[in-house]
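Input (structure):
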C-alpha cells in the first residue's frame, strides 16, 4: 500500500495549498501577536488552513465511492449565511447597537466627511474597469475603500461571489491597518500649521440631545433611504434597527446582547465561513494580488478625499473657525480606529489639542456614508452592467 492510499492528503498537497496554509498562519499571527482585528483575522486564518488541506471534510468534496458531492460544513454556512446575506446583516444590527449618533447632532456639518471620504470607492471602480474587471467586479473591489467589512461582503456576494475571499480579507486587513496606512497619507496632504488647528468643541459637545430626536433619527433615515434607494434598505435598515434598539430605552438587555453576544458569535461564523472561498485554486492568482492592491488604492484615496474636502471647506471659513483637515480622514467607516488615530496625531503635534469628539462625529458620519455608498452601488450598478 503506497503513500497515496495511507496518507492521501500528503500525497496530494500542492505548493499552492502550502502557500494558502502559510497565509492562514500569517493571519493568525497578526490576530494574536499584533492584535489586528483578531475577531475576524483569526477565524479567517484558521479557516484558510481548514480548506486547503486536500480532501478536507470542511468543504464540499466528491465521494470517490459514489461520485456524488458531499457538502462540507463551511459550504453549508456559506450558503445559509453569506449567499442569503444573513451574517453581514446581523453584524449591521450589532454595529447599529454600538453607535451613538449624538455627536452628529451636535455637529451635523461633519456628516459631510462621511460622503467625501467615499471618493476612493468610485475612483477605484473606474481604475478596476480599465484593468479589465467588469462593472460588477469593479464595484465589489471599489467598496473595499469604505473600510466597512459587512458592506464589502454584501456587495461582493451579490455582484462577484467568485472574488469574495480576497475582497473580504483585503477589507478587514486594511481596517486593522488604519494606524499604519492613514498617518503617512494625512501628513503628506497637510502642513504642520494645518495639523495644529484647534477646533472649538466645548459649546457643541456639551449640548444635550433629546431622547425623542435620537429615537426618531433611525426611523427617519430608514424611511428616506427606502424611498430614495430601495435596494439599500436591507443595509441601512438593519443598521438603523440596531440603533433603535439602543436608543429606545426599553430593550436594554437586547441592546447589550446585540453589542456583545450577537456581534461576537456572528463575527466568528462570518470569519470562518469567508475562509471557505479561500481555496488555493481561487486565491493563488494574479487577480488576487491586483484586488489587494486596488483595495489599498481605494483606502488611500478615501482618506485623500476626506482630507482634501476639509481643506476645501476651510477656504470658506473664517480664521478661528477652521476645521483641522486631519478630521476629514475620519470619514471612512473604520470606527473608532480612524478617530483614535487622528486624535493621537493631533496630540503628537500639540498635547493640548483635543480632536477626539469632532473625529468621532466624522467617523460616525463615515459609518452612515459607507452604507449609503454600498446602497447606491447596489442600486445603480445593475442598471449599467
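Output (sequence):
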Amino acid at each position: 500500500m503506497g503513500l497515496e492510499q495511507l496518507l492521501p492528503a500528503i500525497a496530494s498537497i500542492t505548493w499552492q495549498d502550502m502557500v494558502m496554509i502559510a497565509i492562514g498562519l500569517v493571519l493568525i499571527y497578526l490576530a494574536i501577536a499584533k492584535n489586528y482585528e483578531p475577531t475576524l483575522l483569526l477565524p479567517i486564518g484558521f479557516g484558510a488552513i481548514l480548506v486547503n488541506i486536500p480532501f478536507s471534510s470542511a468543504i464540499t468534496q466528491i465521494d470517490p465511492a459514489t461520485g456524488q458531492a458531499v457538502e462540507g460544513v463551511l459550504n453549508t454556512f456559506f450558503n445559509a449565511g453569506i449567499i442569503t446575506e444573513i451574517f453581514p446583516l446581523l453584524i449591521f444590527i450589532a454595529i447599529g447597537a454600538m453607535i451613538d449618533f449624538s455627536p452628529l447632532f451636535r455637529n451635523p456639518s461633519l456628516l459631510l466627511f462621511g460622503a467625501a471620504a467615499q471618493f476612493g470607492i468610485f475612483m477605484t471602480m473606474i481604475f478596476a474597469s480599465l484593468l479589465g474587471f467588469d462593472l460588477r467586479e469593479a464595484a465589489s473591489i471599489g467598496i473595499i475603500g469604505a473600510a466597512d467589512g459587512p458592506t464589502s461582503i454584501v456587495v461582493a456576494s451579490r455582484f462577484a461571489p467568485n472574488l469574495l475571499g480576497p475582497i473580504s480579507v483585503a477589507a478587514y486587513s486594511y481596517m486593522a491597518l488604519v494606524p499604519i496606512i492613514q498617518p503617512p497619507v494625512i501628513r503628506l496632504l497637510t502642513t504642520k500649521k494645518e495639523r495644529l488647528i484647534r477646533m472649538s468643541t466645548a459649546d457643541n459637545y456639551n449640548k444635550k440631545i433629546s431622547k425623542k430626536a435620537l429615537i426618531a433619527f433611525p426611523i427617519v433615515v430608514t424611511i428616506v433611504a427606502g424611498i430614495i434607494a430601495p435596494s439599500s434598505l436591507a443595509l441601512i435598515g438593519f443598521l438603523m434597527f440596531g440603533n433603535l434598539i439602543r436608543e429606545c430605552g426599553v430593550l436594554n438587555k437586547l441592546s447589550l446582547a446585540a453589542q456583545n453576544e450577537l456581534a461576537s458569535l456572528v463575527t466568528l461564523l462570518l470569519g470562518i465561513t469567508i475562509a471557505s472561498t479561500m481555496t488555493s485554486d481561487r486565491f493563488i492568482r494574479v487577480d488576487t494580488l491586483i484586488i489587494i492592491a486596488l483595495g489599498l488604492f481605494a483606502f488611500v484615496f478615501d482618506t485623500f478625499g476626506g482630507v482634501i474636502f476639509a481643506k476645501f471647506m476651510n477656504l470658506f471659513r473664517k480664521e478661528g473657525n477652521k476645521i483641522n483637515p486631519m478630521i476629514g480622514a475620519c470619514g471612512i467607516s473604520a470606527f473608532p480606529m480612524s478617530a483614535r488615530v487622528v486624535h493621537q496625531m493631533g496630540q503628537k503635534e500639540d498635547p493640548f489639542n483635543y480632536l477626539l469628539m469632532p473625529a468621532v462625529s466624522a467617523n460616525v458620519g463615515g459609518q452612515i456614508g459607507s452604507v449609503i455608498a454600498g446602497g447606491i452601488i447596489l442600486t445603480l450598478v445593475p442598471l449599467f452592467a
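Notes: The chain has one domain: 3-60+69-384. The chain is about 70% helix and 0% strand.
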